[in-house]
Amino acid sequence: MKIFPENPHYIEFRSRPIVVIGSGEHYGAVLNLDFDYMPYLDTLARDLLNQVRLFTGVYRELPGDFGITDNNLAPQLGRFICPWPQKDGKFDLDSFNPDYLERLHNFLRCASDRNILVELVLFCFWYNEALWAYSPMHPTNNVRGIGPLDKDLVYSMDNNQLLQVHESLVRKLVTEVNNYDNVYFEICNEPYSHHNNLSFLDWQHHIVDVITETESGLPNRHPIAINYQNRTQCIIDPHPDISICNFHYAIPDAVKENRHLNRVIADDETGFAGQEAEPYRKEAWAFLLSGGGLFSHLDYSFTCSHPDGTAPIRGATPGYGGADLRRQLAFLRQFLEDIQVWRMRPCNEIFAWNSGEVDAQVMADPGRLYVVYFYQNRDGITHSLSLPPGEYQLEWIDPTACRVFLSETKVNQGIYWQIATPSLTGDIALKLSKIG
Description:
alpha/beta
């Protein structure tokens, strides 16, 4: 995979631009030995989705953390595997675990065979001291006893011993996966949880440099991502080797505020919006119809006991997943690829001045094709659009039912074209194709 040269807001994979939409498990597919990733990848391929996130094993969680039922990122006792081998119950940070590397390679091969992209997340911030105390890098857990007791000092340019461990791990993993064309790297998951994000950014940029330097002596180059913030942030002076800007729980402003950077803007994790499909479907449509190039849903229906994505969402699990949402996301992906969204641009200016505030997102190839996504249709509302005069085919789309439910041809006579939405409760999309 690489950045699409004709439009750097999108990914190119195997010689063609694509829309990247994933609905993956909670990142433990390799580090949790109880997770059977074959039916997982088979389900994603069958459901026509094409991206997953994968944690390396530097970070893991404890059963019950964050209210997640059957958390893949919290292996049971004795079922955790990571890049470093254990000696007498402690991790040897000076060598690498061949069993882990074999499992990683097999996962990447199987994903590649199914045309699934893998975001390899190299590091993750620890959200509390208990999680840091559980890490292989904690001084009580590694053979040499190196590393700070304070979790906020782990990712630092000042901690020379542990920094060398980080560099060695990155070089090893980058070298191991160099031949896979379906991999890209994320430096660290949710680093903005750190007490001093600016100093932490220096460490992240250093890791970017380590990746770039390592790949300079290898046959292939891979895209690199940094996870900047939840929802949105105006990114200032990004590292020149970063080509994907990740946000979690992203809103369209994340795209609008950073489109000038000419990088892929990604909604890299979803959650905390309830236990049904609707809010996550809406998030995907709104984000990608604002010009985002990648959407990665966190799908809690994939568990060790249900690796095919059929687990019910239970308890306080902070999100949703299931076949219904995956079907809706696949429909969106197919729709955006059919219209070749990479040949379009954000175009909310088609709403005329007298429309007032409109809760919608627009992508367009101006003068030829327009797609409008309305978050919430209100029956009988008329919108005033400023479009070139001429004949248009109108296709009204139901994102829930995954179908075009009304197709009609109309003529725009002048500057302000009054279009009334049809009767449909919920979100709705409109494709306007100019004829002739």
